[in-house]
């Protein structure tokens, strides 16, 4: 639809109407080629706030750029996930969750072996 | 033992003989109050290299300072763990490991329920 959306620009197009969550938090202009804007919607500002606090903006950008284009959304989501776990558990982060799950797998495996031994 | 170790200093004492892994990588002087030196031994340089790559030095320092002193070694180790997982799996990181373990827990739980139902 013509006439809808931002007006045409000379040079760099800016996401002036809705800057992404990253540019909003960092108080900077959101350029069309902003590395964050496809992955950090202004409607979910807490996602970028979390990765910013734990990894830092430049590391998030670097980590995203290191994966293929079609996997960046997944990478961004996993960084948000990890950052939130770290904010909830600043000492153990995801390692705490992984240890607890490994323990649970061991317990379940032992129970399963015991029940199977009972049958035979 | 007197006479062993670094000579006495005026002002800041430096870990001049064995700067920690962080200061060695960052090519800076390792001060006695270095935030990294208790947790990043020069004998395991790959540990700091991993957290530096994923979180950045200043974030690691900040994350360590945010936890109580007696938990900083655990926090440093969990950051190293997370960084290594992220370097092996840049797209999913620890979230990938957690998803796989959650899946395994579900499968084992279902098997256990099935075997138990068989007994009764």
TrEMBL record, chains A, B:
An example Pfam family from this entry, by short name, is LOB
Its domain of life reads Eukaryota
Q: Where is the LOB domain?
A: 18-119
Q: Which family does it belong to?
A: Belongs to the LOB domain-containing protein family.
Q: Which PANTHER family match?
A: LOB DOMAIN-CONTAINING PROTEIN 15, LOB DOMAIN-CONTAINING PROTEIN 4-RELATED
What name is this protein filed under? LOB domain-containing protein
